[in-house]
Write a structure and sequence with these properties.
alpha+beta, Alpha-Beta Plaits, four-stranded antiparallel sheet, 4 strands, globular, YdhR, monooxygenase activity, Monooxygenase, Dimeric_a/b-barrel, oxidoreductase
């Protein structure tokens, strides 16, 4: 069963295109993570938050990534990482045009 991972954390920039340039190598690395189907990068400059929404093939892949990514972010000096994992209801999500 597919699982969605929601992650957010305090972030002070860079934003937009500058973030895209600086984080390109990280994005390439994330694309190779076991079980990852896709990631949507999120940023909220006015709230100084960033994060992502990820779809994984299964819960163990999502949990392994969350554990690794939390440690990585803390290594970058980010003190608090919010992470939640949800099972995906494929049938209802397809009705509402989810990119499954």
């Amino acid at each position: 069963m597919r699982h969605l991972l929601q992650v957010d954390f305090p972030y002070t920039g860079p934003w937009g295109q500058e973030m895209s340039k600086i984080m390109n190598d990280l994005a390439q690395s994330i694309a190779q993570e076991p079980g990852l189907i896709w990631k949507i990068w999120t940023e909220n400059e006015s709230a100084n938050e960033a994060g992502g929404i990820y779809l994984f093939q299964d819960k163990p892949s999502a949990q392994a990534y969350l554990d690794m990514h939390t440690a990585r972010l803390k290594g970058f000096g980010i003190p608090h990482v919010n992470g939640k994992i949800f099972a995906v209801n494929d049938d209802l999500s397809r009705i509402d045009n989810a990119p499954l």
